[in-house]
């Protein structure tokens, strides 16, 4: 069995407050992309995860491995699988690669083992493995609230090309949240404004409403991320924003030609540049 595990970007990301249990209450609009990892699943004597990327663990630390264990426990299953992850999504990049692989594995095993679990159940199992995992069960365009588990599907925005530019390093999401000073944030997303823009298919307003409060941490710390963002804006991207905790910056473009022109130019700043689209 072969499945696609799509990357995501955050069109908005707001952190409302830190909860007593240590988690942050968030409000974000997420969008899946065509850029995807490929997950191959086959029955096997023992559970094994293999990945072609040097920074991705192949042991119990891999979210795919955890997904297998968790769904087996939930459904009381005694079977094993070998899973091969073909990594195309940059790692520790703010594009949700690990969470997406995890969600794809839950969906794949549900099908392969005829478990008959509803999406809502898969989202509940996924939440135990990571706050972004539930979003990837359905993907598309969704508003995520709570710690990411309260999901509201939104209509698809108009098709747009997306240039991704990633500085040559990984960023730890945990570290970014630790360094976030909520009191110092001046600009917050207008989440309802973005929802209205998506509902009316207004590209200009979608671009005007792009906002991510985690930029206050990552852009401040890394000049390369700032440079990539500035360059995309100078080159005429319709809208630019950092995704998740970074370091990937995305530029939204209304034409393919523009996206390719920006991507070519960005190659002078970083090797990791991708052109993809909403999916
Ligand atoms: P998040 O914001 O959830 O941290 P991200 O897109 O910034 O997502 P990921 O690519 O998911 O980051 O990787 C974060 C870390 O998770 C990696 O450094 C890696 O060690 C670990 N990891 C575990 N499983 C996977 C997986 N299947 N793919 C990628 N990374 C994984």
Strand content: 25-35%
On the 0 to 100 scale, the average pLDDT is: 97
Shape: globular
CATH fold-level assignment of the largest domain: Ribosomal Protein S5, domain 2
Number of domains: 2
Bound molecules: adenosine-5'-triphosphate
In DSSP terms, counting alpha (H) and pi (I) runs of 4 or more, how many helices? 10
Number of strands: 11
Rounded to an integer, what's the Rg over CA atoms?
18 Å
Poorly predicted residue ranges: none
General description of the model:
This protein is of the alpha+beta class and 279 residues long. It folds into 2 domains: 2-153, 2-Layer Sandwich (Ribosomal Protein S5, domain 2); 161-277, GHMP kinase, C-terminal domain (Alpha-Beta Plaits). It is built from 10 helices and 11 strands. It has helices at 63-75, 97-112, 119-127, 133-138, 173-178, 191-200, 203-208, 215-221, 223-234, 256-266; strands at 2-18, 24-44, 48-51, 80-86, 141-146, 150-153, 161-166, 211-212, 239-242, 249-253, 272-277. The strands form 2 sheets. Strands 1, 2, 3, 4, 5, 6 and 8 form a 7-stranded mixed β-sheet that branches. A 4-stranded antiparallel β-sheet has the order 9-10-7-11. A hairpin with a 5-residue loop joins strand 1 (2-18) and strand 2. The longest helix has 16 residues, at 97-112. The two termini are 21 Å apart. The model has no long low-confidence stretch (mean pLDDT 97). The structure holds adenosine-5'-triphosphate. Adenosine-5'-triphosphate (ATP) binds next to helix 1 and helix 2.
């Amino acid at each position: 069995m072969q499945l696609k595990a799509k990357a995501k970007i955050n069109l908005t990301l707001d952190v409302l407050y830190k909860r007593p249990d240590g988690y942050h209450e968030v409000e974000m609009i997420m969008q899946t992309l065509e850029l995807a990892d490929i997950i191959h699943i086959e029955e096997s004597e023992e559970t094994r995860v293999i990945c072609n990327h040097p920074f991705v663990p192949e042991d119990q630390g891999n979210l795919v491995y955890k997904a297998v264990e968790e769904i087996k426990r939930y459904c009381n299953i005694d079977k094993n699988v070998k899973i091969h992850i073909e990594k195309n999504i940059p790692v520790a990049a703010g594009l949700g690669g690990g969470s997406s692989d995890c969600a794809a594995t839950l969906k794949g095993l549900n099908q392969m083992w005829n478990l008959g679990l509803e999406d809502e159940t898969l989202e509940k199992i996924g939440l135990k493995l990571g706050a972004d995992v539930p979003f990837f069960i359905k993907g598309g365009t969704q508003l995520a609230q709570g710690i990411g588990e309260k999901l509201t599907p939104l209509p698809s925005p108009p098709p747009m090309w997306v240039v991704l530019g990633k500085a040559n390093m990984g960023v730890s999401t945990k570290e970014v949240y630790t360094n976030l000073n909520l009191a110092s944030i001046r600009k917050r997303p207008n989440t309802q404004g973005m929802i209205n823009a998506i509902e009316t298919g207004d590209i200009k307003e979608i671009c005007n409403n792009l906002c991510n409060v985690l930029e206050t941490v990552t852009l401040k710390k890394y000049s390369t991320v700032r440079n990539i963002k500035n360059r995309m804006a100078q080159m005429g991207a319709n809208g630019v924003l950092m995704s998740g905790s970074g370091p990937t910056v995305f530029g939204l473009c209304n034409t393919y030609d523009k996206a390719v022109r920006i991507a070519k130019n960005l190659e002078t700043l970083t090797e990791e540049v991708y052109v993809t689209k909403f999916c």
